[in-house]
Write a structure and sequence with these properties.
It is a single chain. This protein is of the alpha/beta class. It has 3 domains: 225 residues, HUPs (Rossmann fold, 3-Layer(aba) Sandwich); 75 residues, Tyrosyl-Transfer RNA Synthetase (Orthogonal Bundle), CATH 1.10.240.10; 77 residues, RNA-binding S4 domain (Structural Genomics Hypothetical 15.5 Kd Protein In mrcA-pckA Intergenic Region, Chain A). Helices cover 46% and strands 14% of the residues. The chain has 20 helices and 15 strands. A 6-stranded mixed beta sheet has the order 1-6-5-2-3-4, sandwiched between helices. Strands 9-15-14-11-12 form a 5-stranded mixed beta sheet, covered by helices on one side. Helix 3 links the parallel strand 2 and strand 3. Pfam families: SYY_C-terminal (PF22421), tRNA-synt_1b (PF00579).
Length: 406
């Protein structure tokens, strides 16, 4: 089985423009492909996970990835699937976020010896003259066709600014420049990017002729990634400072039963033969499949040592011990809490609840325990003496935090 057929079997491929040629190039390791990443934050998140795993799979088969960071397009923001305009960022924020991406990507992609490239579209977009851009790109796009694009549907009824309307032209121009400058012959992207991706292939065809090998393939990165990457407390980040390895492990350990097989297929490198066997697992065996998923992905993102620590802590807490050296900790400074802290604030400070409102609901629903005692009073004040000896704060059955007083 070639790598293209494996992508099909794993459920990654949604749409392609020229399947036979794409299949041949990918299987022969001749694809030079790119995936774009808009620097809307200083860390990649689970929504990017499938794209990174795809790049890793294809690079292992001899293909060359180009990670395009949107230092230029990020100044506008992609309107695809949105009902409002993105908040504009400063160039300093964008450049900082772009710099953060390569370090995280390097865990998935080998950038050594020209095996992969990271390119920033700020190099050609930021200093481009507006009239030059209109003459270079504008004649090749029909406004009538653009208005029918799926990526604009959510915005047309509420108002789409010209600022955002130009995003498709810029993404199309990105592909053209990558084709010209780096020999990039393929673009990969999320299912909501189809219209923007076709814009690039059309621009190459119109400017360079029908023989230009510009092909696209669409993954389920955006739709499935957004579904997978959200929790009650927000996004699941790949940066350990934003989402700890333990919380990352626990997120995957607690995925819905119905999503286990899909996650194993889309995100792991476990052979399909093994995954198919796990499809039939139920009960305790299904929990084992979740543990395999959580460990595999935590190891991929944070390394084997952190994955082992997270697994050990999770098993210890599940068994009711709660005293593992790897149990996640929340450090409180005595000087900052001389009178102690109330339970709602503690839930928020520890990261077990995203807000006091959510913390209040957790307590009222009987889902919070402190030092083995169920807390039912939303006004419960915890004294400094109660916070000593590293008591365990628990929310629900699977979320724990050791409180450390310094």
């Amino acid at each position: 089985m070639g790598v293209y057929e494996e992508l099909q079997e794993r459920g990654l491929i949604a749409q392609v423009t020229n399947e036979e040629e794409i299949r041949k190039m990918v299987n022969e390791g001749k694809a030079i492909f790119y995936i774009g990443f808009d620097p809307t934050a200083d860390s990649l998140h689970v929504g990017h996970f499938m794209a990174l795993c795809l790049m890793k799979r294809l690079q292992a088969a001899g293909n060359k990835p180009i990670a395009l960071v949107g230092g230029g397009t990020g100044m506008i923001g992609d309107p695809s699937g949105r009902s409002d305009m993105r908040q504009m960022m400063t160039t300093e924020m964008i450049d900082h976020n772009c710099a953060c991406f390569k370090k995280q990507m390097s865990r998935f992609i080998d950038f050594s010896e020209g095996k992969a490239l990271m390119v920033n579209n700020a190099d050609w977009l930021r200093d481009m003259n507006f009239m030059e851009f209109l003459r270079e790109v504008g004649p090749h796009f029909s406004v009538n066709e653009m208005l029918r694009a799926r990526c604009y549907v959510n915005r047309l009824s509420q108002g789409l600014s010209f600022f955002e309307f130009s995003y498709m032209l810029m993404q199309g121009y990105d592909f053209y420049r990558l084709y010209e400058d780096y020999g990039c012959n393929m673009e990969f992207g999320g299912d909501d990017q189809w219209s923007n991706m076709l814009a690039g292939t059309e621009l190459i065809r119109k400017k360079l002729g029908k023989d230009a090998h510009a092909m696209t393939i669409t993954l389920l990165t955006n739709k499935e990634g957004k579904k997978m990457g959200k929790t009650a407390s927000g996004a699941v980040w790949l940066d350990a400072a934003k989402t700890s390895p333990y919380d990352f492990y626990q997120y995957w350990r607690n995925v819905d039963d119905a999503d286990v097989g899909k996650c194993l297929r889309l995100l792991t490198f476990i052979p399909m033969e093994e995954i198919k066997k796990m499809d039939a697992w139920e009960g305790a065996e299904l929990n084992k499949a979740k543990e395999i998923l959580a460990y595999h992905l935590t190891e991929l993102v944070h390394g084997a040592e952190e994955a082992k620590k997270a697994e050990e802590a999770a098993k210890s807490l599940f068994a009711g011990g709660g005293n593992s050296a790897n149990t996640p900790k929340c450090v409180l400074k005595k000087a900052e809490y001389p009178e102690g802290i109330d339970i709602l604030n503690l839930l928020v400070v520890s990261g077990l609840a995203p807000s006091k409102g959510e913390a209040r609901r957790n307590v009222q629903q009987g889902g919070v325990s402190f030092a083995g005692e169920k807390i039912t009073d939303i006004g419960r004040q915890l004294s400094l003496s109660e916070l000593e000896n590293e008591p365990l704060l628990q929310k629900g059955k699977k979320s724990f935090m050791k409180i450390v007083l310094e």
